[in-house]
């Protein structure tokens, strides 16, 4: 007797908290799920596309009719009615009724049962690129409910071989519909096929349901965890730096002001019902005239002092209400926040505070006690410009290392980039294959090249000299010492001259923040930028100034308020150490790994100048 084959167990770790099996567990197998055929599973997701196949009705073979003599008395009422249909239609036409209305009434009398069908759904749950083909019989669910794009389904069924040979290795025959989230097709933004990424920005709450954005989000996730893995593997501590700060970390950045002084007026529950009712000032003024007449009349008669007092109080409150409404209208029409003067000693923090631009200064204080540290969190810049590589709210990796100099920080940045590129090449194969097919055919080659190539290191002065010697190329911006390299200059260096990543170091002190270490020449500072092909500058780093006198002179030279930075100066006063580090915005790194060209397409909810929809 042949031994029975043990059933293939479904891994439970991925569905422990959701009561369903993620499609990645089924479709991500080497056999595409074939080894799981015959198992009963529960899957959940959203319909990406669908089609309906109508079943052909099975008719029994006709039997040989027996000769029969039909008596007029044996004719049924329905047969008589059907034989009279042409006559009824003719009569209705005579009386002006349309053919459609006649047919509609007759069809209502003789109604046919709906033809059975099968809805073939392509269901995705966001865990992988491919979707699972699901067959739903019309007896189980109405096709018009399960077929629209975006419909949410939770289905229990049996995995089986595909009924039609194609790209699928396995499909699900539905047996139970456990949940059905319906969609209004006329209003659902993803009902249209192949929407451009630009239009998806206006419906960021739905766009992860598209295959492209879902793949980008999974790559985004892998880069996040690869970042933590690199620093944890190298002994760094992860620490949090404040989002709200009283310090301008760079000394010259555009910042978001944090204040509660704008809401010092009435709270919502203190506003009178009249204010919320949308009553116009003109209507209240008209009521003031009537109330004034009533007060005058009561004053003349002097018959009821209590009524007079109540009328006077009512008139006084109405006048106050008009004054408040007029003040609010005036504020809305012309007075801007810049024209107001705030007493920040009465604010929540009793001083001016901002959303942080960089975590480097606060992180340095942790490095001077804990050694090598890094932070990963949101940073904010209030720059009023449209850029494809920066956002008003971005997630930034800040790194700081104690007893470290500029060369050490450059080495760390070099190793970090190679590590994260290798991680996503190994862990996001399926998503990168999709990106390769749909977005950028060179993405995997570019990542592999980053891993294998040696980064060229040149000084800022040498970069300027090389660009000046370029013949037959006219740059839009002037190439001269003391001026920042533009994206055009950086791209030419890495794409045309060196054809590999380049690290440019020792920039003029006027181009970098106050806290970076001044070099011996007194003109340049210990800074570096990592520039990648097809990307531009991705990492910016520096060695911090540990000499108190030099740091104080730099702050005075730039006109910075010393009081704001007293806590930072304390690091130089008491047990200073050489530290270096760098900062990296995660979103441009996702651009580099996906081949997209706008950071607004690689974050769940983009915040940029003029855009904060939800």
Automatic annotation (TrEMBL):
The keyword Protein biosynthesis applies. The keyword Aminoacyl-tRNA synthetase applies. InterPro entries: Aa-tRNA-synt_II, aa-tRNA-synth_II/BPL/LPL, Asn-tRNA-ligase. Its EC number is 6.1.1.22. It comes from the Eukaryota. Keywords: Aminoacyl-tRNA synthetase, ATP-binding, Ligase, Nucleotide-binding, Protein biosynthesis. It holds the Pfam family tRNA-synt_2. One of its GO terms (biological process) is asparaginyl-tRNA aminoacylation. GO terms for molecular function: asparagine-tRNA ligase activity; ATP binding. One of its GO terms (cellular component) is mitochondrion. Belongs to the class-II aminoacyl-tRNA synthetase family. This is asparagine--tRNA ligase. It comes from Nicotiana tabacum. The lineage of its organism: Eukaryota, Viridiplantae, Streptophyta, Embryophyta, Tracheophyta. The gene is LOC107827690.
